[in-house]
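Try this one yourself first.
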């Protein structure tokens, strides 16, 4: 019987050993074809060339060891049961402990099993590894499992439950390798030599079955470069398309911005002045400005956006500003009106909860040009909202809006200029990747009058003293905020809930004070009422969820208490901390730690020691990775399988440079040597390229 010829598009069902049940399980994890499986990269490797014997362990080592299970027991810990196993290699013993998934792991193991184990060694009544990576070994393993470098694949519960483990994946990938499947490289050989990259076929082989660490590293470099390069190629392609679009250039010698600066009660920082100049220059271009203004919490982005808006209005165009919450929109309106009223610039607010009569009046005034600047929420992108002459779109906390939402607002004008703002400092490698088609404008300097917030990490047994301190601050005329991660307690969670603690604290510790509660599930009118009361100092202590992460500016608030601080990302903690320290009084951020893991200690220590948001952002990226940096995934952009923005800075820069060079010389990728690049680009970013015509 003639063996079937395999190609990259061949379904996995054609492979021996992949029956209907396993095929269905693989499909649920997005693995349907040979191509998809070959690009299902190992998450780590067991390097048997660097095995450590158990008698020579030392604390802090990252080791690979092999041993036989001597004992396997569930033990009761302080908070829950965990699994403990002791392995022996003929020379010494090592304790393994699992706190998560302990019951599942216990079912998968038995005394006498031989394990290949890797992880970091710690010393606690003997040497141990917490949550080690492991794989069961067999004495009669076939050659694909006895090599010196063994790939370990990421396994979902779906794969595990259907009998699919790393051993099985190695087996079927080995079958593919034996078939001598054709893999064409999208890069020409001269390009590979120029960049010092391995050929694609070799890289794919070595990522699964490397014979040495040198070969493995070459494969990793090539596959990482591919992911960075095609993203940068997409961004360069998109950017050159934007340059061909014509917009409204505004004259630079405006008077409004100068009048605003002269009337300010403070002096612009050098960073603010630099940002204003950069944006003002961009507004004079006949191509639409596409700029990201980023700065730390309290760095003064709002005044820069006010100055930019004044230039546009002076040129008889309108400005639209979209904010993620009504609270923030109202705060912006207050800030803009303070500067614009004396210039007779008409500002208005548009939100979803407005009365129909009021809303219709505003929409009509926008349409006939009577409103110069409109500030609103998602209500701005409704179909009946039209502008007479929209010249500038500003998106605040832009990562909170989807691409389509931003586009809808932009499309209400004739190629208006675009300014995005974020108070989340973004590490440069991430910014290049996420916003490579945008000009970056950074405010990296704090105003002189902005005092750093003193941050302290405490355990729950010190909460009583903190509550007393907060009560003392209130008697001095100050206000405080307490943030909890949940709105309501759930059976599955041990996190302290905002609603329950509001009931407890208002009746006990703060019974003599005015305590308020605000969270995202409240009606808009109720939230507005609470915020107005807090702003007016009618509420002494505000208990909240992360709804206050943005939009609250109460200079009188001096204490921010964050419960379960270890559950938050560092960037989010920094955002929350930025809600205090806005006035003249000394301010405090108190982080309550309810986990004693080394990771929790390390992360919260960073918050104690560092106030610079950009440094914190770098640390957050290292710890959490880019996919979770903002708390939500950025569709399409961050779907890397192997690339890593924490460590790939030099590769990103090289990929960016080469991609821009290619687009510069062949803007539509029509050249013979770029045909394969064009095909790969379209395959990778098809969804993102819907708006871009490749001719």
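Now uncover the answer:
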């Amino acid at each position: 019987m003639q063996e079937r010829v395999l190609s990259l598009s061949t379904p996995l069902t054609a492979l021996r050993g992949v029956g209907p049940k396993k095929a269905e399980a693989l499909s649920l994890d997005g693995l349907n074809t040979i191509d998809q499986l070959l690009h299902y990269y190992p998450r780590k490797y067991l390097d048997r060339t660097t095995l450590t014997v158990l008698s020579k362990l030392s604390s802090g080592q990252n080791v690979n060891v092999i041993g036989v299970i001597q004992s396997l027991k569930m033990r009761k810990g302080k908070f829950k049961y965990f699994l403990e196993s002791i392995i022996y290699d003929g020379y010494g013993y090592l304790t393994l402990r699992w706190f998560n998934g302990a019951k599942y792991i216990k079912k998968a193991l038995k005394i006498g099993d031989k394990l290949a184990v890797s992880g970091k060694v710690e010393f606690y009544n003997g040497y141990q590894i917490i949550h080690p990576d492991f794989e069961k070994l067999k004495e009669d393993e076939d050659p694909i499992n006895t090599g010196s470098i063994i790939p370990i694949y990421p396994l979902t519960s779906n794969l595990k439950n259907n009998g699919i483990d790393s051993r099985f994946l190695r087996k079927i990938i080995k079958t593919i390798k034996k078939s001598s499947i054709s893999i064409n490289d999208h890069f020409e050989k001269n390009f590979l030599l120029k960049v010092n990259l391995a050929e694609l076929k070799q890289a794919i082989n070595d990522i699964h079955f490397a014979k040495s660490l040198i070969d493995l590293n070459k494969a990793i470099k090539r596959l990482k470069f591919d992911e960075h390069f095609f993203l940068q190629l997409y961004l360069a392609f998109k950017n050159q398309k934007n340059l061909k679009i014509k917009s409204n250039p505004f004259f630079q010698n405006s008077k409004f911005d100068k009048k605003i600066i002269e009337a300010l009660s403070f002096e612009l920082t050098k960073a603010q002045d630099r940002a204003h100049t950069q944006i003002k220059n961009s507004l004079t271009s006949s191509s639409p400005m596409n700029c990201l203004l980023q700065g730390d919490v309290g760095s003064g982005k709002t005044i820069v956006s006010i100055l930019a808006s004044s230039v546009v209005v002076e040129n008889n165009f309108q400005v639209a500003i979209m904010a993620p919450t009504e609270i923030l929109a109202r705060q912006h309106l207050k800030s803009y009106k303070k500067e614009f009223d004396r210039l007779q610039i008409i500002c208005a607010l548009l939100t979803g909860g407005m009365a129909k009569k009021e809303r219709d009046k505003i929409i009509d005034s926008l349409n006939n040009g009577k409103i110069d600047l409109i500030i609103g929420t998602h209500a701005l992108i409704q179909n009946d909202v039209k502008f007479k002459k929209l010249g500038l779109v500003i998106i605040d906390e832009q990562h909170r809006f989807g691409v389509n939402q931003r586009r809808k607002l932009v499309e209400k004008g004739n190629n208006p200029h675009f300014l995005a703002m974020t108070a989340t400092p973004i590490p440069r490698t991430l910014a290049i990747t996420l916003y490579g088609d945008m000009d970056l404008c950074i405010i990296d300097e704090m105003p002189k009058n902005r005092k750093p917030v003193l941050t302290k990490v405490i355990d729950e047994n010190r909460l009583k003293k903190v509550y007393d301190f907060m009560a003392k601050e209130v008697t001095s005329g100050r206000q405080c905020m307490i943030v909890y991660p949940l709105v309501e307690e759930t059976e599955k969670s041990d996190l302290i809930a905002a609603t329950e603690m509001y009931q407890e604290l208002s009746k006990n510790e703060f019974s003599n004070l005015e305590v308020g509660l605000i969270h995202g599930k409240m009606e808009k009118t109720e939230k507005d009422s609470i915020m107005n009361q807090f702003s007016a100092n009618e509420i002494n202590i505000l208990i909240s969820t992360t709804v206050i992460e943005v939009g609250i500016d109460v200079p009188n608030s001096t204490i921010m208490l964050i419960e379960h601080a270890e559950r938050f990302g560092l960037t989010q903690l920094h955002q929350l901390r930025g809600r205090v320290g806005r006035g003249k009084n000394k301010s405090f951020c108190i982080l309550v730690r309810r986990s004693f893991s080394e990771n929790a200690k390390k992360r919260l220590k960073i918050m104690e020691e560092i106030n610079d948001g950009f440094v914190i952002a770098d640390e957050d990226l290292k710890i959490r990775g880019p996919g979770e940096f903002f708390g939500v995934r950025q569709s399409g952009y961050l779907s890397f399988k192997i690339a890593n923005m924490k460590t790939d800075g030099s590769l990103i820069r090289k990929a960016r440079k080469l991609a821009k060079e290619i687009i510069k010389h062949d803007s539509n990728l029509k050249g013979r040597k770029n045909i394969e690049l064009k095909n790969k680009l379209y395959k990778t970013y098809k969804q993102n390229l819907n708006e871009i015509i490749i001719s």
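Discussion: Residues 213-243 form the longest helix (31 residues). The domain at 256-443 is CATH 3.40.50.300 (Rossmann fold).
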